[in-house]
Amino acid sequence: MEVKHVTSPNVMEPDMMENFAIFDRPYKCTCLCLERPKMKGFYKTDNGTMFGSISEPWTCCDPLFVIKDMNKEPQFQIHADCCQCGLCCRNDVCGKCSDVLFPIYPASVTDFHPQNSIGMIKKVSGDLLKELLTDADNFEVLFPPNASPEEKLLMIGATLMIDYLFYEDTTKSQQNRDNRF
User: Fold this and answer.
1) Which of 14, 57, 62, 102 has the fewest C-beta atoms under 10 angstroms from its C-beta?
2) Which segments in the chain show pLDDT lower than 70?
3) What pLDDT score does 136 carry?
4) pLDDT at residue 180, as a whole number
5) pTM: predicted TM-score of the whole model, two decimal places
6) pLDDT reported for residue 118
7) How far is Cα 92 from Cα 26, in angstroms, rounded to an integer?
8) How far is CA 71 from CA 66, 104, 174, in A?
9) d(Cα 141, Cα 146) in Å, to the nearest integer?
10) What are phi and psi of 87, to 5 degrees?
11) Structural domain boundaries in the chain
C-alpha cells in the first residue's frame, strides 16, 4: 500500500500527489502460532529505508499487535479485549453496531488495564442501515503524547491491519450481497 502526500488539497490528480511511504504486508497462510501477520513500513524517498514494523504475535484469545521502530525495538503494544461485542459477534446486528476499543500501551507494560493506556484505536460503528448494507468501517486513532511522525504512521498502519484482519468479510454471503447492488 502506498501512502501519498497531497500537495494541493483541491486537486486530486496523480501529478499533485507524491508517494512518501509504503506499507508492505506479504500474503501468508497463518495457522495458530505459524506465519503470524507482519507489516513493514518503508520510506519511498530514502532508498527504501524501513521506518518500523507491526506484528501480531500469537495469543490464545486477546488480539495483540506490537509496533517496532526502525531498529526493531518494541515501542508500543496494542492490546484489545476479545470479549467486546464488536469482536466476538461481528456478523450480527449487535456486533456490527458496537464500538471496539484497541488501547495502545508502552512496550514495557505487562498489566493491560485501560488506565495504563497512552492512546487508543477505536472502531466506531455507524448507524444500523450503514452497517447492514455496506462494508465501510470507521476508525478513530488517539495517538500517544510525544509520538514521532513515524510512530503515528505505524499506528495508522496498525489500524489498517486491524481492519483487514477483523472487519473485512470475504465470505460467500458478503460476496452475494455485494453482487446484488
Assistant:
1) 14
2) 9, 11-12, 14-16, 46, 88-97, 127-132, 169-181
3) 75
4) 45
5) 0.80
6) 95
7) 30
8) 14, 20, 41
9) 14
10) -95, -45
11) 22-168
* Per-residue pLDDT at 144: 94
**Amino acid in the structure at residue 62:** D
Cα distances from 163 to residues 14, 47, 49, 116, 117, in angstroms, run 26, 29, 25, 24, 21
Per-residue model confidence (pLDDT) at position 122: 93
pLDDT (0 to 100) of residue 67? 95
3-state secondary structure the chain: CEEEEECCCCCCCHHHEEEEEEEECCCCCCECCECCCEEEEEECCCCCCEEEEEECCCCCCCCEEEEEECCCCEEEEEECCCCCHHHHCCCCHHHHCCCEEEEEEECCCCCCCHHHCCEEEEEECCCHHHHHHCCCCEEEEECCCCCCHHHHHHHHHHHHHHHHHHHCCCCHHHHHHHHHC
Residue at 118: amino acid letter: I
